[in-house]
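Page 37, continued from 36.
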């Protein structure tokens, strides 16, 4: 082995032996390792792209985990990067194949846009999910009827079948909360989202009761930002921050828009949003007050 050739990648072995998070995360891990190999050899994205008969833009997408991997492309990149050990190459290729295996959510491909598919894959691997919502109850905490009302609002021209498919997907996501490796979910909700009786009073009552029950889970923390706070640190829209135990995965900020989403992973961006989230948690009612606050809203609802 020459001095320039990287040593065996322990993180690759770890993911092969203890895969977690599905193909989305495996693609990111593999892309990160390939980027490190390329940079260690001082090879440009343009030259890497030429080696697999593609553009530098495709190399960028591969390294970000945005697209799937072909065995031939991975093999050619490994050769270019000086990874010649057969066992090490086999590990990379095995991971590439696992990263191309469809996740459970692919059965909802008819109603699942690619920009949202990424979030579901990241949720599966996250150890902590922090979220702030202004208008709605967070998707992971919604009841079926409330989710149906939200879906109808966002997709007014969708058929009844499509609505039910979207609701079923949202309910399937929520199984994460009680799984064996459930992440810690820390949600801050604006009081406005709780006062707006989306779907009618009966639906909203059930949703508030569900929030009380869910907040009692050991891995769920729920805070409410009351009207009395006035201006909030995250004025403008919802924010979700995902954190992972794996050192190869940086914290990721998810910003959902009407028909797309932004995923931020640069340190400066993430640090700014983490500071905003910390301020939100400090401004909101403490978690110990959440149950009583929700009960007060329930008691004040008219029949």
């Amino acid at each position: 082995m020459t001095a320039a050739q990287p040593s065996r990648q322990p993180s690759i072995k770890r993911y092969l032996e203890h895969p977690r998070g599905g193909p989305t995360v495996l693609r990111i891990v593999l892309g990160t390792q390939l980027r490190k190999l390329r940079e260690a050899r001082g090879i440009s994205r343009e030259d890497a792209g030429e080696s697999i008969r593609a553009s530098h833009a495709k190399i960028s997408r591969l390294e970000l985990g945005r697209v799937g991997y072909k065995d031939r492309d991975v093999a050619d990149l490994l050769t270019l990067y000086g990874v010649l050990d057969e066992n090490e190459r086999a590990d990379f290729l095995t991971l590439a194949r696992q990263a191309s295996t469809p996740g459970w959510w692919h059965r909802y491909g008819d109603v699942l846009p690619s920009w949202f598919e990424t979030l579901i894959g990241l949720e599966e691997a996250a150890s902590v999910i922090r979220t702030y919502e202004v208008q709605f109850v967070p998707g992971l905490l919604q009841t079926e009827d409330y989710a149906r009302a939200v879906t109808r609002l966002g997709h007014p021209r969708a058929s009844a079948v499509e609505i039910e498919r979207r609701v079923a997907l949202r309910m399937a996501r929520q199984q994460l909360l009680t799984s064996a490796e459930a992440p810690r979910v820390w949600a801050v909700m604006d009081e406005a989202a709780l006062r707006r009786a989306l779907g009618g009073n009966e639906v909203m009552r059930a949703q508030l009761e569900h929030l009380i029950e869910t907040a009692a889970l050991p891995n769920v923390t729920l805070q409410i930002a009351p009207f009395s706070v006035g201006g909030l640190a995250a004025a403008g829209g919802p924010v979700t921050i995902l954190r992972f135990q794996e050192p190869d995965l940086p914290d990721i900020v998810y910003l959902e828009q009407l028909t797309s989403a932004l995923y931020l992973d640069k340190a400066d961006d993430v640090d700014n949003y983490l500071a905003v989230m910390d301020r939100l948690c400090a401004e909101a009612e403490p978690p110990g007050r959440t149950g009583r606050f929700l009960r007060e809203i329930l008691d004040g609802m008219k029949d």
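The CA atoms of residues 12 and 91 lie 7 Å apart. Flag for discussion at group meeting. The chain has two domains: 13-99, 104-300.
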